[in-house]
Specification:
Strand content: 5-15%
Enzyme class: transferase
Bound molecules: phosphoric acid mono(formamide)ester, norvaline
Largest sheet: 5 strands, parallel
Structural class: alpha/beta
CATH superfamily of the largest domain: Aspartate/ornithine carbamoyltransferase
Number of domains: 2
Oligomer: single chain
Strand order of the largest sheet: 7-6-5-8-9
Binding site for carbamoyl phosphate: 56-59, 83, 107, 134-137, 269-270, 297
Keywords: Cytoplasm, Transferase
Number of strands: 9
CATH architecture of the largest domain: 3-Layer(aba) Sandwich
Binding site for L-ornithine: 165, 229, 233-234
Family: Belongs to the aspartate/ornithine carbamoyltransferase superfamily. OTCase family.
Length: 309
């Protein structure tokens, strides 16, 4: 049986295929309960602290609403208002919050910060996005793909764009569940080599293939899932104009997606910039599942909260 109580959720690399499948099935159950109006409050009296060093719409709202629906409570803590902003250490913050709350979700810059927080906290720590990973989004993405395609193993996901946190999270997620993954990025903007190697190792076990290329057409051939993300992530605002030129050939548009399977699904973690990384025609077209995808953040994270807390 699967036992995740007390575990951190820093990256999908730390979770087995079986644990991920367990979370996905639980998410489907919780979604059904929610949609049929059935109350389910196993986290009554529990509190989640949410630390944000970057902005958020989906992560903040879905975690807070998720805790409420499960009978618990969530605290939104901006790093500006915490003593962290004045130099209190991550280690002390972790130990203090562990005295009050039942879990911590954190969105920050350096991935190492989240690891340090998890090391010193005596309660589960959930990664709500770092510069290197976004496992909550990838979990919701697997859920959405499973809902639409009815399976994960044997599908092909093509990620077109910056080799960023989303590219990393999706490569690891795909590798775990046996989904082929092709990432196409401009030269110099490929995903980190360490993550690519980790994903390839994981893929060896699941039978998936991981490909990194500079050619978006090659990556998209026969893709079941077409995914893109912003060209300048949070913290890279100063590079936005320069990136706009470099990434232009990687725009997911009507011509490019002709390479994909005729029934491909388009996903984007959002927020999106129409006319930059994706055209309006694609993101608002019949192949797009972006709002079902955003909605699934709630259900996937509720499964996570119920399992870890
Ligand atoms: N996709 C995502 O994490 O969105 P937010 O930045 O709005 O939380
Ligand atoms: N890559 C984006 C994802 C936002 C959810 C960023 O880090 O800003």
């Amino acid at each position: 049986t699967i036992q995740l109580k007390g575990k951190d959720f820093l990256t999908l690399a730390d979770y087995s295929k079986e644990e991920i499948e367990y979370l996905l099935h639980l998410a489907l159950e919780l979604k059904e309960k929610q949609q049929s109006g059935e109350r389910y409050m196993p986290l009554s009296g529990k509190t989640l602290a949410m630390i944000f060093e970057k902005p958020s719409t989906r992560t903040r709202v879905s975690f807070e609403v998720g805790m409420v629906q499960l009978g618990g409570h969530a605290l939104h803590l901006s790093s500006r208002d915490l003593q962290i902003g004045r130099g209190e250490t991550i280690a002390d913050t972790a130990r203090v919050l562990s005295e009050y709350v039942d879990a911590i979700m954190i969105r920050t810059f350096e991935h190492e910060k989240v690891e340090e927080l998890a090391h010193y906290a005596t309660i589960p720590v959930i990664n709500g996005l770092t510069d290197d990973d976004h496992p909550c989004q990838a979990l919701a993405d697997l859920l959405t793909i499973y809902e639409v395609k009815g399976k994960l193993q044997g599908l092909k996901l093509a990620y077109i764009g910056d080799g960023n946190n989303m590219a990393h999270a999706l490569m690891l997620a795909a590798a775990k569940v046996g989904m082929d993954c092709a990432v196409a990025s401009p030269k110099g903007y490929e995903p980190k080599e360490a993550v690519v190697n980790e994903a390839k190792n994981i893929a060896n076990e699941s039978g998936a293939t991981i490909v990194v290329t500079n050619d978006p057409y090659e990556a998209l051939v026969d893709a079941d899932v077409v995914y893109t993300d912003v060209w300048a992530s949070m913290g890279q605002e100063a590079e936005a104009i320069e990136r706009m030129h470099i990434f232009a050939p990687f725009q997911v548009n009507e011509t490019l997606v002709q390479q994909a399977k005729s029934d491909f699904m388009f996903l984007h973690c959002l927020p999106a910039h129409r006319g930059e990384e994706v055209t309006e025609g694609v993101i608002d077209g019949v192949h797009s599942y972006i709002f079902q995808q955003a909605g699934n953040r709630l259900h996937a994270q509720k499964a996570l909260l119920v399992s870890l807390l």
